[in-house]
Amino acid sequence: MEPNRVQDGTAPIVLASAATGIVDYIERLHGDVDRIFGHSGIAPSMAGAPTLKLKLSSFCNLFEEGSRLTGNDNFGLWFGNQFQPRDLGLWGYAIISSPTLGSALENMVDFFAYHQASSLMRLVHDEDGLVRLEYQIQAPDIIERRQDAELSLGMFLNVFRECYGAGWAPEEVHFEHPNPVESREHENAFGAPVYFSQPANALLFRPEIMDRPMPGRDLNLMTMMQTCLEQLSALPEGETSLISQVRTIIRTRLPNGYPPLDTVAHELRLSPAAIKRELSREGVVYKDLVEMTRRDLSMMYMKQRQLPFSEIAFLLGYSELSAFSRAVRRWTGESPRTVRARLLGN
Questions:
Q1: DSSP H or E segment with residue 205
Q2: Which residues pair with 213 in a beta bridge?
Q3: Is the dihedral of CA 178, 184, 189, 192 positive or negative?
């Protein structure tokens, strides 16, 4: 199935229903609701509203701040683990009222663009016989999105469990971010092996499970929810901007080393000359996009105190730690150790 993409806007959105229950969740963790929401630029009253749209960047920041200010590194993981599909509002009801799990997943993918912009969701059949439900934010400016990835896969996990019960587990779980501090909790949350630093966030499962009927199947309700989503959204047509697509590929390819333009062009099915022309119209050079992506990711990775500099260098595509150190000095005028201490407030 082809990926479901939507056009970049100045501010990609997500329906506020994705934050249903977040106020109570923060309070259970003894967090300061007003402070966390204040740092995110969202009013607590907005969270959970079924037809209200939030900036995707603010939504992601809400969960990053929630993790930081509650001291719970796996804040998003456990929020998503307890999140029920019907709490997703229109999109959630369109999913759980589908006739089978397979059609529920297809509706999840097909109507995802109405729920969240500048993002990808798709079903991919692997050569080893497994199916991957992949999810990835494609807005290049949203760098810190670990909490969103973990809460999102937890939400999607509960669609399967809506059909098969609370004991169901995928074959594997993949995350695009590096291994966090408390990574053993992830295997407990999903009941499956969890792998980090992967090309995309994904749940992997066997295709034969898709034939099972959904317990809440209701074709009238499903059709009604689909219609409501279409009327609510007025989405513009078109693909994501080329710069965003190029930066997304750069981000996923960096652990394999500097991604040559030819590699990116092959993946986009464009000629390198066509990419150069389009970037030139935007006043951008390809190597500067790689540099920008490396710089932004490095600042995020250095906030994760458990990641050694050697691993950060690898994740950014540098063959040697010294090359990473020189890059950090070029960007900041400081050593990686000094930058990390400043970012961590030490």
A1: strand 201-205
A2: 100
A3: positive
Beta bridge partners of 121: 4, 135
315 touches 255 (CB < 8 A): yes
- The packing angle between helices 336-343 and 286-302, to 10°, is 60
Place of tokens 């993918």: 109
Task: Give pTM, 2 decimals.
Answer: 0.81
Domain segments of the chain: what residues?
Answer: 13-233, 242-343
Amino acid found at 273: A
Residue appearing with tokens 């290049």? 140
The amino acid present at 172, given as its one-letter code, is E
Query: Exposed (0-12), middle (13-18) or buried (19+): which is 217, by Cβ within 10 Å?
Result: middle
CB 87 within 8 A of CB 17: yes
**Under CATH, which architecture does the 242-343 domain have?**
Orthogonal Bundle (1.10)
Angle in degrees, CA 284, 285, 287, rounded to 5: 135
- pLDDT, tens digit only, all 346 positions of the chain: 433 333 334 689 999 999 999 999 999 999 999 999 999 989 898 898 887 889 999 999 999 999 999 999 999 999 999 999 999 988 999 999 999 999 999 999 988 988 999 999 999 999 999 999 999 999 988 999 999 999 999 999 999 999 999 999 999 999 999 999 888 999 999 999 999 999 999 999 999 999 999 999 998 888 888 878 877 665 444 445 788 888 888 988 888 899 999 999 998 888 999 999 989 988 889 999 999 999 988 998 898 887 899 989 998 999 999 999 999 999 999 999 999 999 888 6
Contact indicator for 206, 130 with CB cutoff of 8 Å: yes
**Which CATH class name applies to 13-233?**
alpha beta
- The CA-CA-CA angle for residues 257, 239, 76, to 5°, reads 65
Q: How far apart are CA 136 and CA 126, in angstroms?
A: 18
Give yes or no for a contact between 194 and 175, defined as CB atoms under 8 angstroms apart: yes
- List CB contacts of 319: < 8 A, sequence separation 6 or more: 257
Distance CA 333, CA 295 (A): 13
